Amino acid sequence: MYVTCIIVYVNHIYLNGEQDPVRHFYFSLMLLAGIFYPWMYDLIQLIKDGPRAYFSDPWNYIDFLYIYGSLSNIVCQTILGQFNVITETLMILIILLLVVKTFFFLRIIESFTPIVIMLIRVIYDLRIFLLFYTILLFMYSLLFSVIGVGLSNV
User: Fold this and answer.
1) Cα 74 to Cα 43: distance, rounded to the nearest angstrom
2) How far apart are the first and last CA of the chain?
3) Per-residue pLDDT tens digits for 27-37
4) Among 94, 90, 38, CA closest to 46
5) Which of 34, 84, 139, 142 could form a disulfide with 5 if both were Cys (CB 3.0 to 4.6 A apart)?
6) Distance, C-alpha 146 to centroid of its chain
């Protein structure tokens, strides 16, 4: 359900450039409604198992970052606005975590299991190359920033 909320939110706020503060507030409430169930489920699991047992599972770190990052994002979206650097960075982090969680969830479906396992192994094997590629992209983007490509105030 939260995936659908994120897709609708990004479509209306970022792609269509929704500027009406009232509609933006309602879309933020939609995000809050979408994250409510996972938040309650994880909170109950944290209380029931205790912090030591809860954080002994590495996937719970991802859940914790995902849920509390989403809640922080909603607060930042409401207070700072949707085009603030902090808000956009949180949204990118949430979407990346959402991709990871979606792949993890798709392992349940029998026909998707081999594909998901293959993707996880390929990404793990390519982690050094992906780090190098990320550094390369970052450095090239700095070059374009220096010459002013895409800057509106130049």
Assistant:
1) 18
2) 43
3) 888 888 888 98
4) 38
5) 34
6) 29
Query: What H or E segment, with its residue span, contains residue 55?
Result: none
71 vs 121: CA distance, rounded Å:
31
13: number of CA atoms within 13 Å, CB side?
26
Q: 104-136 pLDDT, tens per residue?
A: 777 778 888 888 888 888 888 888 998 999 999
**How many whole angstroms from its chain centre is CA 53?**
25
Q: Residue 6 corresponds to which amino acid?
A: I
Which tokens go with 54?
């809860």
What's CA 12's distance to the chain center, in Å? 17
Cα–Cα distance, 37 to 27 (Å, whole number): 17
Please tell me whether the overall predicted TM-score, pTM, comes out greater than 0.85 for this model. no
**Which residue in 8, 3, 9 sits closest to 82, CA to CA?**
9
Instruction: State the pLDDT confidence band at 72, using cuts at 50, 70 and 90.
Output: very high
- Burial of residue 103 (CB within 10 Å: 0-12, 13-18, 19+) is middle
Residues in the chain: 154
3-state SS class at 126 = coil
Q: Give me 58's structure tokens.
A: 């590495």
